[in-house]
Amino acid sequence: MSETRNPLDLAVERAKIARRVAVITGAGISHESGIPTFRGPDGLWKNFRPEELASPEAFRRDPGLVWEWYDWRRGICAKAEPNPAHGVVAEMERTYPEFLLITQNVDGLHARAGNRKMVEIHGNIWQARCTVCGHRFENHQVPLETIPLHCEKCDGLARPHIVWFGESYDEEQLSRALTFLESVDLVFTIGTSGMVSMPVFLAERAREEGAFLVDVNPSSSSLSSLAHLFLQGKAGEELPRFWQRTREPNGRKQD
Ligand code: NAD
Ligand code: ZN
């Protein structure tokens, strides 16, 4: 395969013949569904920056305030619908024999779009965890009836089942992602800034293992520099356009 070909043609060709594909998504993929990113202009709530609320210290200081913020965010997520970019990621799962979605998003939109082979490395906004007995449970009330939320088993104080700033990742989930990336053909990073170090680490690992990387984002970052192809633009526009091209027959065999 000639490396002098343009990166877009090369990526389309790779996407046509790939068998094992990973997609890594960040807050940007849900932006066109109306969910603010943290660092974007609409990321503030009552003048608090997310970093002031999404931490164990903030929760210790004022669990009610942190739950109020989550209650507001859950309201936004409940109203949001998956957008065309979520649709393409779900179609990728149906297309490739081996597939894994590694998402930092907590909004549940990928599952609603149809993805099942997925690790939610930052948790899920519809799940809570008891700070006393550790019990994990689903809660879909919008708005919440009582704030802060309490455990359905022991009535202890519950917290959102989210990996906050300064907290560690779930080992099992992370190792599932890393193992999958060991021999992957193609990796998409979509709507993540490179300010969170995990997607950069994962993409670097995949690249070292020989994967072809495609980054989709309106803004450039360390991830776009790392990628073989940078699709600069909104995920809901760039990804369906790219996917359409990979679906076009061009006489090449799928094998
Ligand atoms: P981030 O670092 O992943 O940044 C968001 C990225 O999205 C930016 O690079 C931005 O340029 C890009 N972007 C904006 N609009 C886009 C579009 N239309 N298409 C493609 N990309 C677009 O994430 P963050 O906002 O700094 O949040 C940090 C963490 O907080 C996330 O990793 C996530 O765990 C959590 N978070 C989740 C959600 C969600 O679940 N929807 C929303 C906000 C934050
Ligand atoms: Zn409990």
Descriptors for this entry?
binds nicotinamide-adenine-dinucleotide; alpha/beta; elongated; binds zinc ion; 3-stranded antiparallel sheet; 255 residues; 6-stranded parallel sheet; disordered C terminus
Q: Measured on Cα atoms, how large is the radius of gyration?
A: 19 Å
Strand content bin: 15-25%
Task: State the total count of DSSP E strands.
Answer: 9
Note the main sheet: 6 strands, parallel
The share of residues in helices is 25-40%
Strand arrangement within the widest β-sheet reads: 3-2-1-7-8-9
| Average pLDDT metric | 94
The N- to C-terminal Cα distance equals 15 Å
Overall 3D form: elongated
What is the helix/strand order? HEHHHEHEEEEHEHEHEH
Secondary structure category: alpha/beta
- Uncertain spans, ≥5 residues at pLDDT below 50? 251-255
Q: Treating each run of at least 4 consecutive H or I residues as one helix, how many helices?
A: 9
Hetero ligands: nicotinamide-adenine-dinucleotide, zinc ion
Structure description:
- By secondary structure, the chain is α/β, with parallel strands linked by helices.
- About 35% of the residues lie in helices and about 20% in strands.
- It contains nine helices and nine strands.
- It has helices spanning about 5-15, 55-60, 65-80, 85-95, 110-115, 170-180, 195-210, 220-225, 235-245; strands spanning about 20-25, 100-105, 120, 125-130, 135-140, 160, 185-190, 210-215, 230.
- A six-stranded parallel beta sheet has the order 3-2-1-7-8-9, sandwiched between helices. A three-stranded antiparallel beta sheet has the order 5-4-6, with helices on one face.
- It is elongated, with a radius of gyration of 19 Å.
- Mean pLDDT is about 95; it is low at about 250-255.
- Zinc ion binds next to loops.
- Nicotinamide-adenine-dinucleotide binds near residues 28, 31, 196 and 218.
